[in-house]
TrEMBL record:
Protein name: Uncharacterized protein
Domain AtuA-like ferredoxin-fold: 462-566
Domain Acyclic terpene utilisation N-terminal span(s) in chain numbering: 4-62, 76-387
Domain of life: Eukaryota
InterPro entries, A to Z: AtuA-like_ferredoxin_dom, AtuA_N
Amino acid sequence: MAGGGSGYDPRLPQWLGTLLPACAARGTKLICNLGAADPAGGARVAAAVAGQLNLDLTVVGVGEAPAAQARPNGAVYAYLGADAVARALRAGADVVVAGRVADPSLFVGCVAHALDWDLDAPATVATAAATCMGHLLECGLHATGGYFFHPRGRQPERGGGAELAALGLPYAVATATGLAGGGFEIRKARGRPGELSRRTLAQQLLYEVSDPAAYVTPDVVADFSGAQLEERGESAVAVSGVAAAGPRPEKLLRLVAKDGGRRQVGEISFLGSGCRQRADWAEEAVRIWMDQECPGSSSLVRASRPGYDALRKRRDDDVEDDGECRLRFEGRFPDEAGALALAQALAGLGVGGPAGSCGGFLGGSPFGSPVVDIGKELVARDAVTTHLWTLGPRLARAAGAAAAMLKGPDARLVGFAATAAAALAATEPEPDATPEGEAPLRAVVPEAPAPPPPLRPGQVLQLYDCCHARAGDKGQLVNVSLVAYAPWAPHFDAILAALEPALAGVFEEFRDAAASDALTVRVFRMANLAAANITVEPVLDGGVSVSRRLDPHGKSFSDVLLSTTVTMP
C-alpha cells in the first residue's frame, strides 16, 4: 500500500462478480479474507460490485483498527479470530470482507453466528471441532483429491487434467450436538469428479498443524490427535474424536512487515553438448562480474539449474550432458546495488559467452523488486481492537453508480454474473443435513481392507510404495504429513520406527546454516490414522517472504521424504 498498490486482493471483483449473484439468489452469506491489508478498501470494492449488479446487499469489512497498524519502520497486522467474523454477521452483513483472520476462524465465525455461540466463554469441544472442520474446508480442492493427483497416488478415471479441472469443492454438514461431541461430516457434490476419502482427509488434516495435539488458533487450542475418519459413501466422510486441548489463547499472532531489501531473479538457458558445463562457466563468470561491480554481492545469490538441482542436490553426476540446462540466479540484497550487479552480469553472458546462451530474462527491474520481510510477535488479545466498516444497500448502489459513471459499466461483471447464473441452473440440490448418527442417502458399506503385504527383516522399502505425504510451511519450519496407504497401515509403526533415525539426514542438505548448526526434528504420531506429522527446522532459507529458493514454501519436501528408502530391522 505504501508503494501505491491496493492492500486488498486485486481478484476481489472477479471472485465477487462471479459468486454474489448466486449467493443473493439463494440467500447465502459470503465470507472471505480478501481484504488482506485493507479490509476497508476491499469492502468498498465489494459494495461497488454489488451495486453494479443491482444486488441489495450489506457489505461489512472487518479488521484490526487502522491506528494500531502503523509503525515507523513498517506495518503490523494481527490475526483475528472467529469473534470478528461473528460480530460482522450479527451486524447484518450479507458479505464479510475480512482482513487478517486465521483461516479456520472464517468458518468458526459462521458456525458461532448460526448456533449463537458466545465465543468469549471458555473454549469447548464444539469450538475445537468447528476449527477442525474449518481447517479441512480451508484445504479446498486438495481435500477432494487435488493434492492426490500423483502417479503413485490417485489414478484419474479419465484424462488427469480434465478430471483435475472439474473437481468439486468440499462442504460440511454439522449440528450443535455433533460438534459438541467432537464430530461433523465433510462432503463433496455428488457426481463431481475427484476423491473425498479417508486418505485425502488424513493428508489434509495434518497440513501445517505442527503438533496435532495442540493446534493453536485465535479461538481454541484444538486436539486432532484422536481424530477418526469414517467413509460414508463416495461423497462423504464423518470426522470424530476432535477435542479441546486448552482455553482460548490470551495472545494473538501479529505479523510485522518491514523492509527486507531488494530481490533480483534472472535465468538463462543452454542447449546441446556440454550444456551443464557451459552453465557452470556462466555461473562462475556472473559471480566474478558481480563482485567486481559490488564487492561481496555474489555471496547473497543462490544459483540452481531447474530440472536438475533446483529442488534438491543431484546424486547422479554421471547423467549425460547433452540435453538442455536452465540456469537460475536468485539473490536478496540490502539495496539496489547488488540487484543491479546481478542484472548487468546476466546481460554480460549474452555478449561475452559461453556459447549458445538463450532465453535470458530478468524477473523485473534491473534494480530489483522490494522484499517485505515478515516477522512475528505475540500481542495481548485486549490490545487488539477490531473495527467494522459497514456499507448498506444504499451505499452499495451509490458506489456501483459512481464506479459506472467514472469508468463505465464493467462488462466483466456482466460476464461473471452470466457464468454464475449458468452454473446455478446446472447445479442439482444436495440432500438435507444428515440426521445424527445416520449415514447419508445411498451410503455404501466399505469393502474389507486388503490384507497387509508381507514384511520381513532386512526388507528395503521406498516410502513412495507404502505412504503418501503433504508438506507445508510455517516460517523456517516445514511440516510433512506421512500417511500409510490402507494395505500398509498395520505396518506403519514399524516403518516409522525404521525411518525416524534417518530423518535428520534426509533433510540435512536443506538446513539453513546461518540459522542453526543442527536440525530440530519432531515426530507426532496419529494412532487412529496410521499417520504421523513430521516437523523439521530451520530448512526454508529464512521463510517464504525472503527465501531465494525455487520452492520457498517447501512443497517438494513431501517428495523428498517419499523418495527415501528404509530397511526393516
